[in-house]
Design goal:
This protein is of the alpha/beta class and 312 residues long. Helix content is 32%, strand content 26%.
């Protein structure tokens, strides 16, 4: 299997699920759970579950939450290359979900990622890991200067660099790395930020290409995923999922599944179907990166994912 280096978010996810009809401005009955998460880490776990050799570079605090993240990396078989700031708190993501698993609101306490400065990329261990990798994956939790420097390092080593956009406020951090990206994974809200509110979905591929992005997958919840590469634009309908448990991490798992298939020789269109099947498994699990994710289960789920259709 491939050697993958992931640079980005690895923090604590706290998720509350409302058990009844949501009443805004009031106390709602529900349940609460906490686990290690983060866009980069969710994708890293997905790739590790699928058999790849994964190393993760991140930052965290010297607190109990940081220890939870460390133990989760060890459990997933991921090589932990984090820098630990002993006097700071580990970043966290706190979400409130409707009873159908969809997001109501979330709060991201991510200030520590600003300390993942580009000079960290000069660490010998990181440069050695990148030089020996088959793929580099990053997320937009990292500062813009670090993402730009990472793109330069990937180019200098001749390594493919993929990215996860993370959120509408953060996606523009990737702008100076767009030309170096092999694949960008984003959602409709992030595409709207890049393309403008007046741009319709059928114009997104053209607008994103104009920004220097050569290949992308745009997820849109239950609506078809839009993809484009050098062969053109297309869309793939998402299968009906009757029992959605939690949508957290679905986009990260889509990225992991797609990249896994591409590293196994599939073209982007075929690989994105694989990613959609992976995301379908993720939303049916309570975990953001389901531990039961496997090639066998994805192949079974793939039967319900339609073939790509032209999109224009």
């Amino acid at each position: 299997m491939a050697r993958v280096v992931v640079l980005g978010g690895a923090h604590i996810d706290r998720r509350a699920t409302i058990s009844g009809a949501t009443v805004h401005g009031a106390s709602n009955p529900g349940s609460w759970r906490e686990e290690a998460g983060g866009g980069g880490f969710n994708a890293a776990r997905g790739l590790a579950h699928l058999g790849h050799n994964v190393a993760m570079v991140s930052v965290r605090g010297g607190d109990h939450a940081g220890e939870t993240v460390s133990l989760a990396m060890e459990a997933a078989g991921i090589d932990d290359m984090a820098q630990v700031f002993l006097d700071r708190a580990t970043p966290s993501y706190t979400a409130v979900l409707e009873r159908d698993g969809n997001l109501t609101i979330a709060v991201a306490d991510m200030d520590l990622y600003d300390h993942f400065v580009y000079r960290q990329l000069s660490r010998k261990s990181i440069r050695k890991a990148i030089a020996g990798s088959d793929l580099i994956l990053c997320d937009a939790n990292l500062p813009a200067d670090t993402l730009r420097a990472l793109a330069g390092l990937a180019d200098a080593n001749g390594k493919p660099l993929a990215a996860i956009a993370i959120s509408p406020p953060k996606v523009e951090r990737l702008s100076q790395a767009f030309a170096s990206l092999s694949t960008l994974f984003l959602n409709a809200a992030e595409a709207t930020v890049l393309c403008g509110k007046t741009t319709s979905a059928d114009q997104w591929p053209q607008q994103l290409r104009a920004l220097g992005i050569s290949r992308a997958a745009i997820s849109r919840g239950k609506d078809p995923v839009i993809g484009f590469d050098e062969t053109g634009a297309f869309r793939i309908a998402t299968p009906l999922i009757e029992a959605v448990v939690d949508v957290t991490g679905a986009g990260d798992t889509l990225a992991a599944g797609t990249l896994h298939a591409m590293m196994n020789g599939e073209d982007f269109r075929s690989a994105l179907r694989y990613g959609i099947a992976s995301a379908g498994l993720a939303v049916q699990a309570a975990e953001a990166a389901p531990s039961e994710l496997s090639a066998e289960k994805i192949v079974a789920a793939l039967k319900s994912v339609p073939q790509p259709e032209p999109f224009s």
